[in-house]
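Changelog-adjacent note: as of this version, every example in the card shows the full chain rather than a window. The one below runs 533 residues end to end.
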Amino acid sequence: MRRRAAIAAVALSLLAISSQGLAVAAAPGGDSQQSGRGSSESYRPRPITYPQVPEVPVEVVTGPRFAKGEIERRVSQASPGETVFLDEGIYEAPATIDKSVRIEGFGKAVVDAGGQGTVLTVRAPDVTLSGLVVRNSGIGPVGGPMGIRIEADRAQVIGSYVYDIYTGIGVFGAKGVQVVGNVVRGRGRGAILDEGHATGSDGGSESYDGERIQRGDAISFWDSTAVLVRGNRVLKARDGIYTSFGAEMLVDGNLVETSRYALHTMFTKDVTVVENGFRGNLSGAVLMYGGPVLMLRNALERNHSPSTGFGVLVKDVNAVELNSNVISENRAGVSLEGQSDPATKVTMNTVALNQIGILLQPTAQAVFSVNSFVDNTTQVVAQGTEVQGKNQWYDRGIGNYWSNYKGYDHVGEGLGDVEHAEGGSVATLIAKSPVLEALASSTAFRMVGAVEDRWAGKRPVALDPKPMMEPRSPKLEAEANRGAAALGRALAIVGLLAGILLVVRMRAPARRAPRSEASGNSRAQIFNARWRR
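Full-length structure tokens:
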């Protein structure tokens, strides 16, 4: 009887392990709005719906083939403003659109350049490309081959697939261009060069299958103004969205994954970045020169690289505002460098579970308030000397929430009565030697940190005079993804322990098995639970 019970317990544990995987697979995940994330009246969940379309379309492989020049022939027969319908099939390219028409492919028209040059070039204003499958450009980088090259104003690329290309969609000197609801997938086997561009170091390269094929950018703008990039899915590119020497750019509701930099701005003015997901890249948003830039309600997560790995990097950009973003599980959450007028504002962001929460260069000038710094291996680190006193860690009498704050709130106003200091030599040592991260939570490191706090007389990198007792920034993704995984692991552990204990009891009936508890709460859930108090 006991043997059957033991077998049943082990079976339940295996079922728990499998159910863990099913729960994670079935969960809505970070690509959609999480239920139960708005339990506090002061918290407004991000209404983000990221693109859910597949990476590669269901292609036409048996349809008719149309010779090169067929697209131009149909365009020449249409009047300006008319719609040119492309039949199901494969159209040989390159092709050039030199008349203001709408070209509709309904997802069944494949435009294929056969590995030579740019697939489609738009040279007339007011052209709309919709429902096309654009593929197989030249190998690059010589000649800069692209899937779609736009050289005229007010072009629109809507609901199309662009893949197996060097650069996906490139816009040059145009105004009013809209890139909406597309999937752009680069050549994943290509090398990622110049990884260390943001830091000035040589980050090396990444190659696949032993080939020296290089990746180009997915969506690229040069000297372009009043542009919209909305609801696109980008994968396996060099820079997911790149802009240089442009102005008035709205980047809204895109999902960028498995690329070098998800967003890269150079000398661009008036950039607004709202409700995007930048996940699993070498770096998230890399902002360089120009400005102003507003980043609002974005998710910048799991961007890792030994050379970069930033959630957000700001380098010599004026008037940057980071507001209500979730920046988690990156090598460095936020890296700031360069003087800014006005100072960079970092407000109401959740900076959590990063190797380094905030990385400050000596020239950084920023104001931090109402942010939550949660369980970063090191919360704040100075990259160099003379950082102290240049940044302000409160605004309008309110500081930030620190998960490692040891103070108290005597009067119950929600602000600590003891200031909070960050950025001692112990934290700097861990940041410089990532191999020491495994020891960061050890008793020895904690003791050294405590001694430093009390007797070392250090000048802290961050000094928050009004730390918050509870978080007010956006919650972490926990209930669906991480919560389900943690619960599955807990059930598996409990089941295995139950089976082992039953087996022990069968072998030694007189021995009392010790009690064991397992918690299914992840660090994200613990953080989010503070909202429910």
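Structural remarks: The chain is about 15% helix and 30% strand.
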